[in-house]
Every structure is written in structure tokens, then in C-alpha cells.
Amino acid sequence: MKSAFWLTSLAQVGLLALQYPAGPQVLVGAVLCAVVVSLLWQVRRVMPVHVDMVLIMTAFGGFGMVVGGYAQPTCHHSWGGTVGMLVASLPPSWWFARCLQVPGRYALLVVDTVGMLVGMELGHRLAMGADPWLMHGAMLVGMNLGMTLRFVVPVELLGGGELGAGKLGESRR
Length: 173
Description:
globular; single chain; mainly alpha
């Protein structure tokens, strides 16, 4: 899984650079962000369990948005980008996110997915007309902030327990 993080994080930067050429400052900043996400995955066990979802969505979801965006190149945010993000990020989330290794995980995944889609759309609307790199970053930030919806939804609606509390735990894999 570690190498998959490196691959999707750096490929996301490379694919964006192919579609939207950028200056060296943007490229260096994007590569540094990809490196930080990949390194955080390696030490995530000492952080709250929901960090897994944030890292997976940033690496795999961001990569899926870029790949899916090639299906509709007139707009970085498109149905292709949304489908690509979901296809690329939900399977690794299901298997590797520690916060989804608890009873009630179906409800958690639904709440996270809805929050992610709403946050991504808000990020897109706020950055509309901006540089595609800024728009991609705004959508990633919005997507991850949208997943914090879980912490304001009453846990009883998610199946009870401490699902939203972010307790440390072990993953299946």
C-alpha cells in the first residue's frame, strides 16, 4: 500500500502537469504535498483513525479526479472526475481506513461519501475560474473538510458506539 500512495500521489501531479503546464514553484509545491501525504500514510498509526480517510482521499481520490477529468477535458471538475474519484478512492478506503473497520461502517462510508461530494463541489464553486491547480487543491481541501461531517452527525444515526470519535484501532490489512 505504501508504494501505491507514492504512485497515485506523484502520478496525480504528473497528469495535472501534462494537462495544465505550470511553473516550477507550483510543481515543487505539488510534489512536496504528494511526498507529505505518502509519508503521513507510513506513520498514520499514531494519529486518529479518520486520518486514514483523509490520506486515502487525497492520494487516490485526487488521482481519480485527474484521470476521470480526462473524460471531459473542458472542465477539471466533471462527471468523469467525480466518477474517477469515487472509483479510485472508495475501494482502498473500505479495505485500509481504520475508521471503517468498525460496526456501522456502511453508514460511515455513506456519510463520508456525501460529505466528500458536497465539499468537493463547494471547493469547485469557490475556486471557479481560478488556475486548474488551485481548483484541484480547493476541491481536495473541500472533499476532506466535507468528510468531517461525520463529527457533527449524531453517532446514533451512524449505528451507535464511538464511530465518529476517532479511536485508535487496527486495520484488517
